[in-house]
Amino acid sequence: MLVFTIALLLVSLVAFLVIGSLQANTIKTREDMYSASSGLDRFQVARTVLAANVSIAGGMQWFLVQGSDVGLQIILWGPIAVLIGMYLNAIFVERYAPENVFTGYSSFTTMVRDLFEGRAATAVLLIITSLGSLTILLIEIYVGVQVLKVFFPQIDVAGIGVLGFVVAAVTLYAVMGGLLGIVRNDWIQNAIIASVGIVVVIVIIGGSTSPYHEVRPAPAHEYTPMGIDLITWLVIVNLFFIPTQLRFWQVAGSAVSRSDFVRGYKRAAVQTALFWSLLAVAGYALLHYTGNSFETLDGLLSDLKNGPQHIAISVMFAIISLAAFAALVSSADSAIISLAQAASDVLVPASNNVLLQRAIVAAVGLLSFVIYVAVFLVLGTQFFAVFSSAFSLFILIAPMVGIALVDRATAKSKLYQYVSLGGLVVSLIVVLLSTYTALPYLPNSLWAGAIGFAICLVAAVSAALIARRHRG
Predict the structure, then answer these.
(1) Mean pLDDT over residues 272-289, rounded?
(2) Pair 467, 417: CB distance under 8 Å
(3) Rounded to two decimals, what is the model's pTM?
(4) Are 269 and 94 in contact (CB under 8 A)?
(5) Which of 11, 39, 393, 436 could link 448 by a cystine bridge, Cβ 3.0 to 4.6 Å?
(6) Hey, is 28 helix, strand or coil?
(7) Which domains does the chain have, with CATH numbers?
(8) CB-based burial of residue 350 (10 Å sphere; 0-12 exposed, 13-18 middle, 19+ buried)?
(9) Residue 368: which of 404, 343, 401, 394 has the closest Cα?
(10) Residue 458: exposed, middle, or buried by beta-carbon count in 10 A (0-12, 13-18, 19+)?
């Protein structure tokens, strides 16, 4: 079972490399590399947004694993939350974002530079968005390493070594194919992830009595009660965190038009909700099949790996492992290409040298791996707790990014104040939720909420002073 699954992962990686590199000869400029020459239609926008959303930590670990712990509640609340959050994002962009966001700018960096006066404000926003993208990438890598250790449990260095090989391969097809190569890979990665829910449910429903019940009785399981706190948290994530991601603005700048981006984003909202539902249903079915609930994705895979020898278990182990790998790759390539674009905009904004742009993409991939290893060696078992809190902190200050969606005059008057005050409200909600809920990311978010509150308070006071100056 293990050897077959490893071979399957290697075959899929080769396929990703081939598909991602098919566009290598068509890349002649930096726009080709980072924005597909602004040629993404609504179907490509939907596909790449979906791939970024259904990640290994956010989609696989959250919905598949939580489906076994929260049960049918997450199947109901999860899709509602993602639809609310993403649709509100799409409506805001449709109504308030200027058309030149989609025609005049190739990235978030160029947009911020034009809409904000002063280097300080530009630098702060770029640092926030870059660190937010890097934080979510490191969380994804951490979950991916835990999954890889299921296959290479001997020593931690082996897990890191395999991760380095995976990151190198992902970086290679990002270097060769650019954004369009990544988008072309998204369809196969999405199909693999979607197959988890379908295959697992078919295998469990269509199979015989679970072999697990022959070695251990299925215990009565009390589901973790979650309701309004869950939907509130998921709405906050989709409404406030996603717009701080460089990837969001990279796709917006790469769309053919505002209409294509908005329609594609709404389509992605529906598809994401369906994907999350499939994963949650699969997790719910696995609970009754294995008799166990799980806290982590690697815990689920370890249970299947060490479970009874049965064809159904082997099939589920292979398909869940392959989907986790596809989710990790889709998250990593999206983050690497968007961070590389930001680095290029800052370091060599006028260069159309394709070799230089490819070198920047390669450097970002290498640095991401080095940063992960260095931070993990320092933090150890506290890695996830620290970065979960950082994740929450970026959500709290995310409303400030909304300023860049409007023209300079509006940004410096009323909307600036509204966004800042909105940040205060979000901070308070997250702090209150973190005091009683058992949601991942939140138990370690109390200090992040306090810091976010302070940041938004300073922003609100500054906004009032700026507005007075603007009116004068």
Answers:
(1) 81
(2) yes
(3) 0.82
(4) no
(5) 393
(6) coil
(7) 2-379 (1.20.1730.10)
(8) exposed
(9) 343
(10) exposed
